[in-house]
Amino acid sequence: MLSFVPFLVLIALITCCVAVFGNATLDGASQVSLLVASAVSVLVGHFSKRLTWEDLEREVSAKISSCAPAIIILLLIGAIGGTWMVSGIVPTMIYYGMQILRPEIFLVSSSLLCALVSLMIGSSWTTVATIGVALMGIGKAHGFDDGWIAGSIITGAYFGDKLSPLSDTTVLASSVSGTPLFTHIRYMLFTTVPTFCVSLTVFLVAGFTMNVSGHANVAEFMDGLEHTFVITPWLLVVPVLTGIMIARRWPSMVVLFLAILLAAVVGLLVQPELVRQIAGISGEPGLSGLYKGMMQVCYGSTNIETGVPMLNDLVQTSGMGGMMPTIWLIICAQTFGGALTATGQLQDLMRLVLRAARGTASLVASTVGTALFCNIALADQYLSIMLSSQMFKDTYQKRGYEPRLLSRSCEDGATVTSVLVPWNTCGLTQSTVLGVATLTYLPYCFFNFLSPITSVLVAAIGWKIHRK
Question: What is the pLDDT of residue 304?
Fold first, then answer.
């Protein structure tokens, strides 16, 4: 029973942090809570299992070292988010994507547009907080209920986030399970795409059966993009080339680095004045301004004035610096995982869970259920992914399952369900940003609550599940 003490302490601390800090929990409070829980784990292990300090240091170092590739990729993701935005690639995709919005297909278009944006920038939070806010206003003008609008936005945002190679949760799930990033993404297609298609079908039928009329004021949003960026279809060459590199299965670090380089060159050629504006020397000729501006885009935050407040939030980027809270959280979580492993407490908990995991379906169901439980108990999707992966990794290996099955199960249980928990950091953020209560939009987030079910069903059928 002592093995439960560190978890109980962590749950209590995270609960207090969410109550006190709200959406700012990830700024440091969660990290401190993890370190305190790690200390409790070491204390319990020392008195109950005679743990030596050398064993602890060795296990924690091994856990942190295993995440070194993920940390590098996260830094590259921060840079690509800035370069793709400032170069006009993402604004161009948003600009053309918004032209498909009509009342009858608004719900399905909202999901597709959010999926596209989230897939390109790798962040469901940014998608919801920017284009999602705009779509809420458009949907209300059409006469849709808040729950339907928010459900379609969140469905698309989390679909794109889950499949994006730029997503920190996608990178995290693949890294901690030992699965190559693009192998993980391709394997998720077997559960993610069918579930998303079912969700789109529901939104399409709802859009044609509901009595809505009128057209929202999208012109202001599109004008802001046109006056701030050079919008041209030629900018889409960069994501096309990136897709080709992904299809050819190049290493993820190489793909991300080349995508940054391509976007930076395009930004210097197509948006030179915008780059100089970011550097603070707008209007002055010379290469120094371009160099300074593009470096800031890669490593720091950018604030571009478009004349439209919602659009300002959309085009704002944080660069590599914006990835530091996530990296900090990974290091602290790996410290907690290392302490649990070194003391044997994780193994004790695993034995209780694995008693019910006999076959493939029950093992996947246990993984998905554990991830969902962590979302509810720990109130954070990152912790849910890391802890559920650490708990089941050895079991999947011993039973001969490929690590991609573990990484997919963790994402199906943790990433998409986090937004459905009112006190989870994701649920808190999205309900606050959209102005819709979590329990109001929950029934309409079909993709999010169907994904864990689909994951278990696919495992039960045995589709594309192989043993070594």
Answer: 82
